[in-house]
Automatic annotation (TrEMBL):
<dbReference type="InterPro" id="IPR008972">
    <property type="entry name" value="Cupredoxin"/>
</dbReference>
<dbReference type="GO" id="GO:0004129">
    <property type="term" value="F:cytochrome-c oxidase activity"/>
</dbReference>
<dbReference type="GO" id="GO:0050304">
    <property type="term" value="F:nitrous-oxide reductase activity"/>
</dbReference>
<comment type="similarity">
    <text>In the C-terminal section; belongs to the cytochrome c oxidase subunit 2 family.</text>
</comment>
<feature type="domain" description="Cytochrome oxidase subunit II copper A binding">
    <location>
        <begin position="29"/>
        <end position="125"/>
    </location>
</feature>
<dbReference type="InterPro" id="IPR002429">
    <property type="entry name" value="CcO_II-like_C"/>
</dbReference>
<comment type="function">
    <text>Nitrous-oxide reductase is part of a bacterial respiratory system which is activated under anaerobic conditions in the presence of nitrate or nitrous oxide.</text>
</comment>
<keyword id="KW-0186">Copper</keyword>
<dbReference type="GO" id="GO:0005507">
    <property type="term" value="F:copper ion binding"/>
</dbReference>
<keyword id="KW-0732">Signal</keyword>
<dbReference type="GO" id="GO:0019333">
    <property type="term" value="P:denitrification pathway"/>
</dbReference>
<comment type="pathway">
    <text>Nitrogen metabolism; nitrate reduction (denitrification); dinitrogen from nitrate: step 4/4.</text>
</comment>
<comment type="subunit">
    <text>Homodimer.</text>
</comment>
<dbReference type="InterPro" id="IPR051403">
    <property type="entry name" value="NosZ/Cyto_c_oxidase_sub2"/>
</dbReference>
<dbReference type="Pfam" id="PF13473">
    <property type="entry name" value="Cupredoxin_1"/>
</dbReference>
<dbReference type="InterPro" id="IPR006311">
    <property type="entry name" value="TAT_signal"/>
</dbReference>
<protein>
    <recommendedName>
        <fullName>Nitrous-oxide reductase</fullName>
        <ecNumber>1.7.2.4</ecNumber>
    </recommendedName>
</protein>
Amino acid sequence: MSKISRRHCLRAGSALAGMAVLAACSPKKPAKTARRIIKISARKFEYTPNIIRVKKGVPITLELRSEDIVHGFYIPDLDVRSDILPGTTMRLDVQFNELGDIDFLCDTFCGDGHGDMNGKFVVHE
């Protein structure tokens, strides 16, 4: 092998080794976290669960199902609402950016206990 060929091979090998070191030392991209899915069941005159802990600033998907009749689901602080139809799953994408308790309620009259059909999100760090 000539001096030029050896020199080129050594340089190429050194360059590859250097790139491998740089790749190993470079910061990794954070893994994309899956969106949290929270299932909420509605039934005369309650939501299950009715107290839900969520992290501030983390996007979530609410999956809403009615076990009996048409209900409403309303989060006044976010001005987000949906009807919940029996036999279907309604999906709402939300994100809470303020700490504290955020109320939700049924805004479709469903009987004498309708006023008690509510719950809250507890937003924490």
